[in-house]
Amino acid sequence: MTKAEFQKIHDEMKALKAAGKQDEFAKKFVTKDAIFMGPLHEPANVNEAAKFAKSEMMAAVSKGEFNITIDEITPIGDVVIERCTIHAKVASGDKTGWSLCVWVKDGGAWKIRNSCTTFKVVPSA
């Protein structure tokens, strides 16, 4: 897989999330035993992450504009390690973040097995 091929996957995932189709997103792009780690929640399985995505806290965040740039992909057989930079425009301002994702082949399709995302925190003055 190339960066361009994974970018197409990210574009499709972004469209599903924007349309509020979390269940379809999970079926198509997430393994059943996936774990998501992020700054706003404890490590979460696919069901917990979908529930969190529909929460009030995420409602404000989901209205933002997110652009993902794939910095690097490292294929290892039927596994790909992907590192990305995230640029977000949300109500509280512009944010920069990063993700590290483990993708695996599942039923012939690339799916997320583990995902860890973080954002830069600007210290208070």
UniProtKB/TrEMBL annotation:
It comes from the Eukaryota. Residues 19-112 form the DUF4440 domain. It holds the Pfam family DUF4440. InterPro entries: DUF4440, NTF2-like_dom_sf. This is DUF4440 domain-containing protein.
